[in-house]
Specification:
With 172 residues, the chain is mainly beta. Helix content is 13%, strand content 39%. Strands 2-3-4-5-6 form a five-stranded mixed β-sheet. It has a two-stranded antiparallel sheet with strand order 1-7. Strand 3 and strand 4 form a beta hairpin. The chain starts with a strand and ends with a helix.
């Protein structure tokens, strides 16, 4: 998924890499797996500067944080980047103040843009900390381990909280 910047014409240049397998992103994690993703967008060439509008649609298989069942979720992420040819001005400095423009600026020594790293970053930033198969997922029973979404259990769960001792005082 490389784009040669020297082959681009002045103005807007559309691209579409279509459906790609998630394995090419080389993301290894036991809590989720990228099944596939689509990459498309445009690069606007303005003299020696380039502006990248990137869209990534992905389908990811997650493990639910409550019930531990696998589920699929589609996601669409967008990114806007400023591409400059040359060396990063912050690269060799021991201390530097990062400005807002530096966050979305990509420096390239060669006029070839590889999108894999950018796509990987966009997908990883979209991953929720605790993915849920549904918002009202009931999770697993802490006593018997049954999935409460699929079957009921008759286990009695004693609720313990740091304030449960105070509750007992008021009962007396």
């Amino acid at each position: 998924m490389e784009i040669s910047l020297k082959d681009l014409k002045e103005g807007k240049n559309d691209f579409n890499f279509g459906k790609q397998k998630g394995e090419i992103l080389e993301i290894e994690n036991e809590k989720f797996k990228v099944k596939y993703f689509n990459v498309y967008g445009k690069i606007t060439k303005s003299r020696i500067e380039y502006f990248l509008n990137l869209n990534v649609k992905s389908k990811i298989i997650f493990e639910c944080a409550r019930c531990l069942e696998n589920f699929e979720k589609e996601s669409e992420e967008k990114g806007f980047y400023h591409i400059k040819l040359g060396k990063d001005r912050l690269l060799n400095k021991k201390e530097a103040e990062i400005e807002e423009d530096d966050i979305n600026t990509i420096y390239l020594e060669e006029p070839v843009l590889n999108l894999i790293g950018i796509v990987r970053e966009l997908i990883l930033l979209s991953i929720p900390m605790k993915p849920l198969c549904k918002e009202d997922c009931k999770g697993l029973c802490p006593v018997c381990g049954k999935n409460k979404n699929k079957e009921k259990c008759d286990c009695e769960i004693e609720e313990k909280s740091p304030l449960s001792k105070i509750k007992d005082i008021f009962k007396k």
